[in-house]
Design brief:
The protein has 159 residues and is α+β, with helices and mostly antiparallel strands. The chain has a domain of 87 residues: SH3 type barrels (Roll). It is 30% helix and 22% strand. Strands 4-3-2-1-6-5 form a six-stranded mixed β-sheet. Strand 1 and strand 2 form a beta hairpin.
Length: 159
């Protein structure tokens, strides 16, 4: 008899809880018009932008983003890029204006073999839903070569 009461109680609980569970699941799958997320507002996570690779127009890696420098209004003024060096030795930081960079949502494509692909690039195609939910770009493109970046003055964080 006790098992029967537990079964009935559990069944009643499931009937009462199922609308709440369904409502919770549907609200997470599609944001309402009042909810905003990073991809819908066109904003990026700065912590994800720092560390992104920077390529030139020929898809050659020329550095990576070390820091974002903000002006007093909170807008990104300059991007500090680590250039040169090998395995962390001899690298130096240079700054370029944020407006000089072009941002790419798509991974870098290489015409050479997959072993020559830059780290972080993928061969699989991403779906539109993957791209629309991403809160940072894949990489940056700068219209300069390694020699031009190396000839720039070292960025001084203390000024």
């Amino acid at each position: 008899m006790q098992l029967n009461h537990l079964t009935v109680a559990f069944g009643a609980f499931l009937l009462l809880a199922s609308p709440a569970i369904a409502q919770n699941a549907s609200s997470k799958s599609a944001p309402s018009q009042n909810e905003k997320n990073a991809s819908s507002t066109g904003t990026w996570q700065a912590s994800k932008v720092i560390g992104l690779n920077v390529y030139n127009g020929s898809n050659e890696k020329i550095g990576d983003i070390k820091q974002l420098m903000l002006d007093k209004d909170g807008k990104v003024d300059a991007v500090v890029i680590g250039v040169g060096g090998f395995l962390g030795m001899g690298e130096r930081d240079v700054a370029v204006k944020f407006s000089q960079l072009k941002w790419s949502e798509e991974p870098v494509r290489s015409a050479s073999s997959s072993s020559d692909k830059p780290a972080g690039s993928t061969t699989g195609a991403k779906t539109n839903s993957d791209q629309s939910n991403k809160t940072y770009p894949d990489h940056a493109v700068l219209d300069m070569n390694k020699d031009q970046l190396k000839s720039m003055p070292q960025f001084n964080y203390n000024k």
